[in-house]
């Protein structure tokens, strides 16, 4: 790629660091007085866009981030089931050992926290209490993202002006020739 100004190339490298136009422009050598304008002008240049695309592809490859991997992660979160992690019966609650969880099941865990408290009393009395908190990531959010990706939502707006609403609209449109009446503020 040919760059007329070396700052254009530096801007592309700096931009993929944090995707902040102003900060990338200053780090690339542009004036700090109006860095956003300088950075925006760089982003409009085809050679800068091409280099950014190339750098992002390299970052994704290095991190092995693919659409399939992201979708698989969302599936793990969205289809997680508490019964895969916790067992309960009349005798109490127990956790499934972590070694028995799949990578997808482990990824769905948001929080595990264990708190032990020891209370001492008279005559060397001690009572230990253990509190275990367990939380999975938000299933609805993951499922919502999956549904949007799969285009399973019907986001079209459908208006049905039937019944009383239709009569009201007809009355308004009939008396004002298609315009809503104006209201004075007297």
Order of helices and strands: HHHHHEEHEEHH
Beta-sheet strand percentage?
15-25%
Largest pleated sheet: 2 strands, antiparallel
Number of helices: 8
Please state the structural category: alpha+beta
Could you please describe the fold and organization of this structure?
- With 186 residues, the chain is an alpha+beta fold.
- Among the domains are: 6-63, Orthogonal Bundle (Arc Repressor Mutant, subunit A); 75-144, no CATH class.
- It is 48% helix and 17% strand.
- It has helices at 6-18, 21-27, 35-44, 46-63, 67-78, 103-107, 139-149, 163-176; strands at residues 86-89, 92-95, 109-120, 126-136.
- A hairpin with a 2-residue loop joins strand 1 and strand 2 (92-95).
- It is extended, with a radius of gyration of 30 Å.
């Amino acid at each position: 790629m040919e760059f007329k100004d070396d700052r254009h190339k530096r801007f592309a490298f700096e931009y993929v660091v944090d995707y902040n136009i102003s900060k990338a422009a200053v780090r690339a050598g542009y004036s700090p007085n109006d860095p956003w304008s300088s950075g925006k002008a760089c982003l409009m240049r085809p050679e800068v866009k091409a280099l950014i695309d190339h750098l992002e592809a390299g970052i994704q490859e290095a991190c092995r981030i693919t659409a399939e991997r992201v979708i698989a992660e969302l599936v793990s979160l969205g289809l997680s089931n508490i019964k895969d992690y916790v067992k309960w019966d009349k005798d109490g609650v127990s956790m499934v050992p972590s070694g028995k969880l799949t990578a997808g099941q482990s990824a769905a865990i948001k929080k595990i926290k264990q708190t032990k408290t020891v209370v001492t009393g008279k005559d060397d009395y001690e009572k230990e209490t253990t509190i275990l908190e367990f939380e999975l990531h938000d299933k609805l959010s993951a499922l919502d993202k999956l549904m949007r990706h799969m285009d399973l939502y019907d986001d079209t707006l459908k208006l049905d002006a039937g019944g009383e609403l239709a009569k009201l609209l007809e009355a308004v449109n009939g008396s004002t020739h298609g315009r809503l009446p104006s209201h004075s503020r007297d």
